[in-house]
Write a structure and sequence with these properties.
This is NADPH-dependent FMN reductase-like domain-containing protein. Pfam families: FMN_red. One of its GO terms (cellular component) is cytosol. Helix 4 links the parallel strand 3 and strand 4. The termini are close together. The protein is built from 7 helices and 6 strands, in the order E-H-E-H-H-E-H-E-H-E-E-H-H. Strands 1, 2, 3, 4, 5 and 6 form a 6-stranded parallel β-sheet that branches. Helix 1 crosses helix 7. The relative contact order is 0.19. It is α/β, with parallel strands linked by helices. The chain has one domain: Rossmann fold. The chain is globular and about 50 Å long. The protein binds flavin mononucleotide (FMN).
Length: 224
């Protein structure tokens, strides 16, 4: 098995998935905060990275996929290519996920669980996710730990993804923030600075990202 340091440098494609689907929502702002945090970390460390690997981040908004509740007649785990699905919306989603190497799931907690739209998007596919690394970031009044635990079971147990532990659970800093989030107002998040809401949680996001990268690089190196 080749070591991570000896594997040929390549560009890994990583999907950052926004799991909220409400019409008025905080999800896109929070997902952008996570993306910015990772991007600024990458910008600061790329030159010092010994592996030479690079990372392209692709934002995926579950709301923009416009997926219906699954209307395929086949079982996703039995389907091994996009052509195996009946509907073009499933084939398009399949091709998109298949092209990505790893994922960061950014999700609100709804009633102690996974938002229905995100679960529906996950359940449309199977082999496109299977065996790939996944990091989990949740948010909510209490940080969304129950959603994170449920996502870990679904992704790690049900689909056999390699899930980074621990997840990052972002607790709303107070009542005013919660009301702003619920009504889609500007939250003042900045993924490039220590100041501001969750500035002190950027280190946890970066730690989860590094966990994801380790899995990604080791897996690909092992396959060389
Ligand atoms: C259907 C629903 C269920 C919710 N359940 C929870 C919950 O279980 N725990 C929590 O901390 N917040 C809960 N909230 C509050 C959300 O954390 C808050 O509204 C947040 O803005 C939702 O993310 P979004 O704006 O990206 O949809 C819930 C909100 C909604 C709409």
């Amino acid at each position: 098995m080749a070591s991570a340091a000896t594997a040929s440098p390549r560009t890994f494609q990583v999907g950052i998935i926004c799991g909220s689907q409400r019409i008025i929502r905080a999800g896109p702002q929070i997902t952008t905060f996570i993306q910015q945090t990772i991007s600024s970390h990458l910008a600061a460390t790329t030159r010092s990275s010994s592996s030479g690997h690079t990372f392209a981040l692709e934002l995926i908004d579950v709301a923009a996929l416009n997926l219906p509740l699954s209307d395929e007649s086949g079982i996703p785990s039995k389907i091994t290519s996009a052509d195996g699905y009946e509907h073009e919306h499933t084939r398009a989603w399949s091709r998109r996920v298949a092209a990505l190497d790893a994922f960061v799931f950014v999700s609100p907690q709804y009633n102690w669980g996974i938002p229905a739209g995100l679960k529906n998007a996950i359940d449309h596919l199977f082999n496109e996710w299977r065996g790939k690394p996944a990091a989990i970031v949740t948010y909510g009044g209490h940080g969304g730990d129950k959603c994170a635990a449920a996502l870990k079971v679904v992704l790690g147990g049900g689909i056999d993804m390699h899930v980074v532990d621990p997840p990052v659970c972002l607790t709303f800093p107070g009542r005013e923030f919660l009301v702003k989030a619920a009504t889609g107002k500007e939250l003042g998040l900045d993924g490039t600075a220590e100041e501001g809401p969750w500035g002190d949680r950027r280190a946890d996001v970066i730690k989860a990202w590094e966990g994801l990268v380790s899995m990604l690089v080791e897996e690909k190196s092992g396959a060389v």
